[in-house]
Each structure stands twice: as structure tokens, then as C-alpha cells.
Amino acid sequence: MGHTVVVVPTSTMLRRAARRRCPVCGHGGLFRHWVRMAPTCPHCGLRFRRIDGHWLGSWFLNVCVAQTVVVAILVVGVALTYPDPPIAALAAVDAGAAVLVPLGFFPFSRTLWVAIDLAMRPLDFHDGVAPGFELEHWPDAGLGAPAGR
Predict the structure, then answer these.
(1) Which of 126, 81, 85, 110 is closest to 19 using CA atoms?
(2) In DSSP terms, which residues pair with 31 in a beta bridge?
(3) Beta-ladder partners of 40
(4) Is 147 domain-assigned?
(5) pTM of the model
(6) Where residue 4 falls among pLDDT bands split at 50, 70, 90?
(7) 85 backbone φψ class: left, alpha, beta (φ>0; ψ -120 to 50)
(8) How many domains, in total, are found in the chain?
(9) 3-class SS at 136?
(10) How far is the C-alpha of 39 from the C-alpha of 43, rounded, in Å?
(11) Could you tell me if residue 32 is inside a domain?
(12) Are 66 and 102 in contact (CB under 8 A)?
């Protein structure tokens, strides 16, 4: 009997990653602490740090989310309190968000970045994944594939 091959679409990888699970196999237990990720998936063996500098993408994703939240708080706060916005209170809330959002979003940015990276650079032999897992392949880049595939 041969191995059953599981084809994992990009949308599934992103949904799994949004729940802090392995994008390839869907299993959890990837974090030893909130900010300490295991080097490999305990179930399928995927090496999360696939190349040098791999985590720069997750850092960038985390910074973008934090900046978006900080700007949204400022814009909504000013809009709701116009014409006399409480600048000191908005600054305090923004300062808190600027610290708490990156810490809270950190594990999600890690797993989401792994999924995004896998969509752009599919699995290869050196990624350490157990046989039987295959990502959905498209002729061009995984993120630019036509809808419905």
C-alpha cells in the first residue's frame, strides 16, 4: 500500500495559522510559552525557520498590525470626540496598544508568516515534513492563484 497524500490549499494553511496551528498538518502545541515557538512541528516535522532571516516577515507583519491598531485608535478617538479630543487620554491608550498589540499578536504573526511563506515557497525535501503532505500547487505563485482552486 502507498502513502495517502494530503493536499493542503493555501486558504486552509492560513486558517490553521490564524489559530496558532501548524499550516501543514493543523496540529497545535507549537509554542512552549506565548513568545517561544518550537523549532519544528511536533506532529509533521515542519521546520518553521526555513531560511536565514525567515522571521523578518513575521516581524514586519506584527509591526503592520500594531501600527494599524494604533492609527485606528487615534482616528476613531478623534472622530468620536471632535472638536475637542482628549489628546492625553488618546496618547495613553495608543501607548498601551503600541506595547500590548505586538505582544498579543506575536504568536499569530509567526504562524501566519509560516503559512504565507509556504504559499510563496512550497515545501521541499529539506523542510523536514513527514511524507504524505503536499501543498496545493499553482502554475505561478500560490498567492496569485485564481479563486476557487
Answers:
(1) 110
(2) 37
(3) 47
(4) no
(5) 0.81
(6) low
(7) beta
(8) 1
(9) coil
(10) 12
(11) yes
(12) yes
* 6, β-bridge pairs: 133
Helical residues (DSSP H) of the chain, grouped into ranges: 10-18, 56-81, 87-120
All 3 cell numbers of residue 48? 518553521
DSSP 139: S
- Polymer length in residues for the chain: 149
- How far is it, in rounded angstroms, from Cα 112 to Cα 98? 20
Query: How many Å apart are CA 16 and CA 95, to the nearest integer?
Result: 31
> Can you tell me the distance from the alpha carbon of 28 to that of 31, in angstroms, rounded to the nearest whole number?
8
Summarised one tens digit per residue, pLDDT across range 16-64 is 999 999 999 999 999 999 989 999 999 999 999 989 999 999 999 999 9
What is the average pLDDT across 98-111? 97
Tell me, yes or no, whether 1 lies in a domain: no
The answer to whether the CB of 96 falls within 8 A of the CB of 104 is: no
Domain limits for position 99: 6-142
Report the alpha-carbon angle 65-40-28, nearest 5: 65
Tell me the per-residue pLDDT of 86-98, one tens digit each, with 9 for 90 and over.
999 999 999 999 9
Which of 37, 40, 44, 51 shows the shortest CA–CA distance to 110? 37
* 149 within a domain of the structure (yes/no): no
Q: CA angle, corner 46, sides to 43 and 50, nearest 5?
A: 160
